[in-house]
Amino acid sequence: MKKWFVFCLVVVMMLLAACNKEEGAASQHGSVNDGESVNGHGAIDHGVDDKKVGFNVTGDSIEEAANVPAEEKDRILEVFNVYIDAFNDKDIDRYIETLSERTESFNKEQEQVDLEDYFSQYDIQREVTDVTIVKYEEEEAQVFAKLATSMKQLSTGLETNPTGRQVTVLTKEDGEWKIASVHYIGDDISK
Q1: Tens of pLDDT, residues 85-119
Q2: CATH number of residue 181's parent domain
Q3: Is residue 62 a contact partner of residue 134, using CB atoms and an 8 Å limit?
Q4: Is residue 122 part of a domain?
Q5: What are phi and psi of 139, to 5 degrees?
Q6: Is 64 a domain residue?
Q7: Which domain holds residue 117?
Q8: Is residue 44 part of a domain?
Q9: Terminus-to-terminus CA distance in the chain, angstroms?
Q10: Number of domains observed in the structure of the chain
Q11: How far is 81 from 121, CA to CA, in rounded Å?
């Protein structure tokens, strides 16, 4: 019960902090911090198809895209791993380097400010499992992963450990894979 209260408290604090942003922050929908899709398709859509991003919320079986060339698979997963490792290392510059210039999901400058603020308030680590490329095209790839996050608020010591599923969309820019958007849904904690 205490963990549930702590989790709810952290969620409320994060919502209040988000509500306290400037009016211009409305353009930040779909950033790597808010987990919101900007393409009109929510992360709760079932299955990954040709027109949208999503994943099966209830199933445990994730199918790897069959058409991924081995070299591209290595390059895509390398960028995804750098993105996760840079976040865990609190290496904001390296994290920002993984992000796409051509995205409407986030603004790199604002993302940097948000991460600096976030890391000053929380000790946070993400652990990923079941990392799978679920969709591949020559210029776009979607990487599914299960995330387990451990979060501790530095000022209060409150801890929470949310889990969820994420699809990270990567696009090619000048031959390099970059993170274009992130779609996340938390697991049902009432199970």
Answers
A1: 999 999 999 999 999 998 888 899 999 999 999 99
A2: 3.10.450.50
A3: yes
A4: yes
A5: -115, 0
A6: yes
A7: 60-191
A8: no
A9: 13
A10: 1
A11: 24
For 11, residues 6+ apart whose C-beta sits below 8 A from its C-beta are none
48 inside domain: no
pLDDT digits (tens, 9 = 90+) for 150-169: 999 999 999 999 999 999 99
The three-state (H, E, C) secondary structure of the chain, written as one string: CHHHHHHHHHHHHHHHHHHCCCHHHHHHCCCCCCCCCCCCCCCCCCCCECCECCCCCCCCCCCCCCCCCHHHHHHHHHHHHHHHHHHHCCCHHHHHHCECCCCCCCCHHHHHHHHHHHHHHEEEEEEEEEEEEEEEECCEEEEEEEEEEEEEECCCCCEECCEEEEEEEEEEECCEEEEEEEEEEECCCCC
The sign of the dihedral angle between the CA atoms of 157, 22, 93, 41 is positive
* 33-70 tens-digit pLDDT: 444 444 443 333 333 444 455 545 445 678 999 999 99
Instruction: Give the Cα separation of 18 and 31 in Å (integer).
Output: 12
The pair of three-digit structure tokens given for residue 182, joined into one six-digit string: 């992130």
pTM attached to this predicted model = 0.70
**Residue 95 burial by CB count (10 A; 0-12/13-18/19+): exposed, middle or buried?**
buried
Q: Are 98 and 179 in contact (CB under 8 A)?
A: yes
